[in-house]
Amino acid sequence: xxxxxxxKQVPDTTDVRIDPKTNTLMRExxxxxxNPFDVYAIxxxxxxxxxxxxxxxxxxxxxxxAEAALREALAMGxxxxxxxxxxxxxxxxxxxxxxxxxxxxRKLEDVTLVLCGKQASDGDTxxxxxxxxxxxxxxxxxxxxxxxxxxxxKITAERLLENxxxxxxxELPCLLTVVKEINEPRLPSLKGKMRAKKAEIAAWNAAAxxxxxxxxxxxxxxxxxxxxxxxxxxxxxxxLEGDPEDVCRxxxxxxKDVVLGCV
Length: 263
Ligand SMILES: Cc1cc2nc3c(=O)[nH]c(=O)nc-3n(C[C@H](O)[C@H](O)[C@H](O)COP(=O)(O)OP(=O)(O)OC[C@H]3O[C@@H](n4cnc5c(N)ncnc54)[C@H](O)[C@@H]3O)c2cc1C
Description:
alpha/beta, two-stranded antiparallel ribbon, binds flavin-adenine dinucleotide
């Protein structure tokens, strides 16, 4: 079986800042890590390989420095790594990103299962996994907390819900997005780190994945960012005290002022 894992390199911070002039993420001076949810996807793919046999390929779409994320995944135990990188990908929204990753997965040809994290800690949309499945026209199981069984033509998995879980069966090939409840990721071994340091990483550009230029980058992105801004911090609010009936009257009057002030 061939397990493919899509991983994203993200800033090692939850304090994501936006450049007000370019409307893009400000990455200067912030260390990069593998998106935390993707580490669970890597771990799960390695466990599947250990149980069922096969190979694990990790892919990332990003700038050349995203290679560091791929080497980390190799150190954990992935077999192959692909960096999908091209200036033509700049400005991609989640639709164009999903298309690009789907084209790279097509090039791999024999993939049984694609694993993604639930969402990225910077973009946070949780759209790329489902987007890849849509572009490939494959079934998908999202929010997977346990893989029960993989057979030659089908997979059974538990999907996390707000108040429990459901068991879903799907034909293969299929795409999964995983949640952190699925496993406890291993730390890379020294041997793994040595191997990863020397490993050759495939580099694919737009031509290599046979992508249609019009579907890439800013031109291929239906999302148009008009403005991004950090909301002003809220003021402290107002405490109403006294007789409950008076407080209610005062509150209704204050709410009316706010609502009427908005129309
Ligand atoms: C109009 C627009 C312009 C943008 N321009 C830029 C830009 O110029 N530069 C820029 O850096 N970002 C840009 N972005 C952000 C970029 O689109 C998203 O970072 C990207 O599509 C991933 O979305 P997300 O972070 O919400 O990932 P999610 O959908 O939350 O990620 C879910 C999972 O998908 C997989 N995944 C996501 N991204 C990747 C990836 N790149 N490689 C491999 N696997 C992945 C991972 O498994 C991840 O856990 C732009 C977004 C918009 C809307």
